[in-house]
Amino acid sequence: MCEPNHPFHRRSTAILAQQITIRTPHADPIPVTQPDAQSCSTRHHRSAFSLIELVIVVVIIGIIGAIAIPRMSSASENAAANAVIADRSTLQRAIDLYEVEHEGVMIHVGAGNIKTYYFRLLKKSDLDGTVDDDGIYGPYINTIPTNLHNGKPTIRIDGVAAGANTDGWRYDSVSGLIEPDHTAGLRTFTISGDAIDKTTGDIINKGD
User: Fold this and answer.
1) Is the pLDDT of residue 86 over 80?
2) Which end of the chain is more exposed for a tag (fewer CB within 10 A), N or C?
3) Are strands 155-157 and 194-196 parallel, antiparallel or unpaired?
């Protein structure tokens, strides 16, 4: 072992000091402490949800659902009811316009069958009501609207009073008024009901 004052020992010490100075010229040694087990356990515990917190979250979600779902259902029902009212008005305007343009003759007069009634609304016609592609009157409506409460687009002329739920609409040949035929107070609605084919006048399913 070399003596402390030996030339070789002093030279080695100087070289080692120079290397340390070059590697860390401006930085003092930074003490590094290892986290103890207790601090790690504390941080892990604080980052997790407690059972009480989870229960509170579930209760809040349940309350929101109980409030929101009935409101959404009510909004859908109101939208369907408003749509039926609007469709009834559209049908009534078409029927009234036909009568005006055909010199006061009501749309059902001389129709013979319900398909002719539909065609007088959906296609062109002559003054006498004959359905004709070259006619000068009409069409008065693009499609027979489906009653969203019962999914039916059909129109019944006279018969039992409106509300029988056998058709989408009921037309009164005396007053010329058309009314929804769904059961009174019915709040359900459908978007997949039937439709009237503009070419044949037959009932078709909207999904076909």
Assistant:
1) yes
2) N
3) unpaired
